[in-house]
């Protein structure tokens, strides 16, 4: 948890991460708000707000009396959204730093390629 | 949907010429955890004493569960106030305090109290005046939690409690609150420790309310920008500054107002670092003698 953004957004993102990583599979039940509150040591109302955000974006759905479940196609939807965000979130800061250090586009591309091969 | 538990309007408390609480308006909703924050002498304890009927207001209106608290026994029965230095009869033991508690608190859970005694390793048979400062605080925390009072106040409840004991307090508070929702008011200086537990923050300074907002709205509502002074000044030029520090040609300026993604890119392109401001830091900026600009003395010099 960091201080720069509302906690409920961070809670939603952590659950989204688990879905993208496959820790939470589609149709799997996500933790209850009380479990999330206890685990992250946050107010249960904040946890609920995070889960409600996932409901609004269709990532999870409520089954009355049972709990919240990851929806069909949630993972694909999240990946699509993150791909759209990828340039803004990762490429732009990378280029700003590269320009500061005098690393040109070709050298940057070479660095990305060599990193790929090593890992 | 939520009921209002406390409604204060123009609430004031004066002691002679000193105004401890200065015409404050606020309300507390049912089933929330509030942080009542502010510096020593800001008026936090006075507000809690007014709400719990321990002192009478000098002006304004106050309703707690729909009534004037000081005059209604059935209102007082629903309140629990744990003071910073709770007093007990001289020859009392913690066991006596826990035996007496259900006379005052109708929702008292003796089993929960027993579990908390074990959690805090509280010696039940030792006389209270022989307890360490931390053990004395543990008695108050246990009473406050196990009372399950619909409106519970913790006023700096943990003097002398170590970090482990405080974490136990926070964890038990969250878990029990989740099972038994009620209104809880935490007044504390250890703001960073409790920040994530709070749903709503009320900040008091000089007897007035400086901030009355949901904790999640407060989070991320300020940021610190650091880097070469000229670039920092360019970036903050038309933003409200609430704190300023400099070191040689470097400056670190705290601004009120959230930064969006474009702001962050602009800052990065200027070579500036952006750091989040915690609730505690924000409160230090809002209530401290922070230099939002040159002070009067500096201007004069």
Automatic annotation (TrEMBL), chain A:
Q: Which UniProt keywords apply?
A: DNA-binding, Transcription, Transcription regulation
Q: Which residues form a coiled coil?
A: none
Query: What's a single GO MF annotation on this record?
Result: DNA binding
Q: Where is the HTH gntR-type domain?
A: 5-73
Identify the InterPro entries for this entry.
Tscrpt_reg_HTH_GntR, WH-like_DNA-bd_sf, WH_DNA-bd_sf
According to the record, the signal peptide region is none
PANTHER family noted in UniProt? GNTR-FAMILY TRANSCRIPTIONAL REGULATOR (PTHR38445:SF10), HTH-TYPE TRANSCRIPTIONAL REPRESSOR YTRA (PTHR38445)
Report the protein name in the record.
Answer: GntR family transcriptional regulator
The species is Orlajensenia flava
UniProtKB/TrEMBL annotation, chain B:
Per its UniProt record, what InterPro entries does this chain match? AAA+_ATPase, ABC_transporter-like_ATP-bd, ABC_Transporter_VariousFunc, P-loop_NTPase
SUPFAM superfamilies found in the cross-reference section = P-loop containing nucleoside triphosphate hydrolases
Pfam families named in the record: ABC_tran
GO molecular-function term, one example from the UniProt record = ATP hydrolysis activity
Xref: SMART domains: AAA
Q: Which CDD domains match?
A: ABC_DR_subfamily_A
Q: Which UniProt keywords apply?
A: ATP-binding, Nucleotide-binding, Transport
Q: What is the lineage of its organism?
A: Bacteria, Bacillati, Actinomycetota, Actinomycetes, Micrococcales
Q: Output this protein's name.
A: ABC transporter ATP-binding protein
- Which positions fall inside the ABC transporter domain? 6-231
The family database entries (Gene3D superfamilies) matched by this protein are listed as: P-loop containing nucleotide triphosphate hydrolases
């Amino acid at each position: 948890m960091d201080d720069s953004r509302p906690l409920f957004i961070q809670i939603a993102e952590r659950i989204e991460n688990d879905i993208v990583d496959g820790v939470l599979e589609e149709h799997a039940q996500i933790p209850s708000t009380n479990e999330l509150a206890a685990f992250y040591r946050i107010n249960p109302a904040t946890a609920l707000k995070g889960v409600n955000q996932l409901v609004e974006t269709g990532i999870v759905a409520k089954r009355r009396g049972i709990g919240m479940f990851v929806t069909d196609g949630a993972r694909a939807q999240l990946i699509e959204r993150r791909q759209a965000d990828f340039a803004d979130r990762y490429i732009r800061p990378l280029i700003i730093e590269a320009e500061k250090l005098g690393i040109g586009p070709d050298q940057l591309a070479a660095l990305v390629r060599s990193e790929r091969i090593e890992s | 949907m939520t009921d209002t538990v406390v409604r204060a309007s123009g609430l004031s408390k004066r002691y002679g010429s000193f105004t401890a609480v200065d015409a404050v308006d606020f309300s507390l909703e049912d089933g929330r955890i509030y942080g009542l924050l502010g510096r020593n002498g800001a008026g936090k304890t006075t507000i809690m004493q007014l709400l719990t009927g321990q002192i009478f207001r000098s002006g304004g209106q106050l309703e707690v569960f729909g009534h004037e608290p000081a005059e209604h026994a059935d209102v007082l029965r629903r309140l629990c106030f744990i003071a910073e230095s709770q007093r007990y009869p001289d020859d009392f033991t913690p066991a006596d305090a826990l035996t007496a508690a259900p006379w005052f608190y109708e929702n008292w859970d003796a089993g929960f109290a027993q579990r908390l005694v074990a959690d805090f390793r509280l010696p039940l048979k030792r006389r209270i005046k022989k307890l360490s400062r931390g053990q004395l605080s543990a008695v108050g925390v246990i009473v406050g939690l196990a009372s399950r009072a619909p409106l519970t106040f913790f006023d700096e409840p943990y003097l002398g409690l170590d970090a482990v004991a405080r974490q136990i307090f926070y964890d038990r508070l969250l878990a029990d609150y989740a099972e038994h929702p009620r209104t809880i008011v935490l007044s504390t200086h250890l703001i960073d420790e409790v920040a994530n537990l709070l749903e709503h923050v009320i900040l008091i300074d000089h007897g007035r309310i400086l901030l009355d907002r949901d904790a999640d709205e407060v989070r991320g509502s300020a940021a610190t920008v650091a880097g070469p002074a000229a670039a920092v000044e360019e970036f903050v030029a038309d933003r409200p500054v609430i704190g300023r520090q400099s070191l040689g040609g470097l400056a670190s300026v705290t601004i009120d107002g959230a930064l969006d993604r474009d702001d962050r890119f602009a800052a990065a392109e200027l070579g500036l670092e952006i750091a989040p401001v915690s609730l505690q830091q924000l409160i230090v900026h809002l209530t401290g003698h922070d230099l939002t600009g040159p002070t009067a003395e500096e201007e004069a010099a």
